[in-house]
C-alpha cells in the first residue's frame, strides 16, 4: 500500500506559500510507515519546530489499474475520506532551498493521518464536496473540491501513467489554503460534507 499525494492543487494555497503555479499535478509519495494509528495522538517530532496541518480529501483505490482514462477513473474507487498530511515546514523549506527531496519533511513517522471512510454513493457530487478542519473548535481550513485545479478522476488518470495503482492505495488530493502550526495540546477535527471524519489530539 502506498500513499500518493498531490501538491499545489488549490490556487489559494499556492498563493499563501508563494509557490509557482504548476502546469501538471505535483506528485509525491509517503510510505505506509508514516501512518498514524487511529485512537492514538499525533506526537510532535523532535527535529522540527514548525509542524503544519494540511487537511485533504482522500480516495481509496479498490482495483489494480495502469494508464486509466479519466472517463473510467470512477470505477477504481468506492470510498472517500478525509485525512491530514503533516508537514515539517521548517525542514521542507531548508530542503527546497538546496534543491533536495522533501521526504524528511513529509514522510516521517506519523506524518499522515486517515479518518473514517464514507461510501462515495452517499455524496451527490464528488466534484463539489465541502470539507473543513477545526483546531480547538476554530475553523482553520475550509473549502470544496470544486476549487481543485485537478479533479479526483483527472488525478487518478494522471498518476496511473507513472505508477500502477493497487488495491488499498490511498490518494491525498491536495490541501486548501489555511495551513498552519500545530502545538501540543491542540485538538484537530475534520468534517466532510458535515460528517465528522476524525478527531486527533496533538501531543
Q: What percent of residues are in strands?
A: 25-35%
CATH homology superfamily name = Fumarylacetoacetase-like, C-terminal domain
Helical content band: 10-25%
Q: Tally the helices: what do you get?
A: 4
* CATH top-level class: Alpha Beta
As an assembly, this protein is: single chain
Order of neighbouring strands in the sheet with most strands? 2-1-10-4-5-7
Structural category is alpha+beta
CATH architecture: Alpha-Beta Complex
Mean pLDDT rating: 95
Give the overall shape.
Answer: globular
How many domains comprise the coordinates? 1
Written overview of the protein:
This protein is an alpha+beta fold. The protein has one domain: Fumarylacetoacetate hydrolase, domain 2. 14% of the residues lie in helices and 34% in strands. It contains 4 helices and 13 strands. The chain has helices at 11-16, 89-97, 103-106, 152-160, and strands at residues 3-7, 26-30, 51-53, 55-61, 77-85, 87-88, 112-119, 130-135, 138-144, 170-172, 180-181, 187-192, 195-201. The strands form 3 sheets. The chain has a 6-stranded mixed sheet with strand order 2-1-10-4-5-7, covered by helices on one side. Strands 9-8-12-13 form a 4-stranded antiparallel sheet, with no helix packed on it. The two termini are 27 Å apart. The mean pLDDT is 95.
List the main descriptive attributes of the protein structure presented here.
4 helices; 203 residues; 4-stranded antiparallel beta sheet; 6-stranded mixed beta sheet; globular; Fumarylacetoacetate hydrolase, domain 2; 34% strand; alpha+beta
Amino acid at each position: 500500500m502506498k500513499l500518493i499525494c498531490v501538491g499545489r492543487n488549490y490556487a489559494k494555497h499556492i498563493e499563501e506559500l508563494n509557490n509557482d503555479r504548476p502546469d501538471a499535478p505535483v506528485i509525491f509519495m509517503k510510505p505506509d510507515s508514516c501512518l498514524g494509528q487511529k485512537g492514538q495522538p499525533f506526537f510532535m517530532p523532535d527535529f522540527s519546530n514548525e509542524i503544519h496541518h494540511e487537511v485533504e480529501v482522500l480516495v481509496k483505490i479498490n482495483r489494480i489499474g495502469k494508464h486509466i482514462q479519466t472517463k473510467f477513473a470512477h470505477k477504481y474507487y468506492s470510498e472517500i475520506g478525509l485525512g491530514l498530511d503533516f508537514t515539517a515546514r521548517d525542514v521542507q523549506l531548508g530542503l527546497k532551498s538546496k534543491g533536495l527531496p522533501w521526504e524528511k519533511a513529509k514522510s516521517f513517522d506519523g506524518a499522515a493521518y486517515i479518518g473514517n471512510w464514507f461510501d462515495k454513493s452517499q455524496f451527490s457530487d464528488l466534484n463539489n464536496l465541502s470539507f473543513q478542519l477545526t483546531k480547538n473548535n476554530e475553523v482553520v481550513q475550509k473549502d470544496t473540491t470544486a476549487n481543485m485545479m485537478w479533479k479526483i478522476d483527472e488525478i487518478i488518470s494522471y498518476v496511473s501513467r507513472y505508477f500502477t495503482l493497487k488495491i488499498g492505495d490511498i490518494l491525498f488530493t491536495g490541501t486548501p489554503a489555511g495551513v498552519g502550526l500545530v502545538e501540543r495540546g491542540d485538538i484537530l477535527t475534520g468534517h466532510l460534507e458535515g460528517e465528522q471524519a476524525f478527531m486527533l489530539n496533538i501531543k
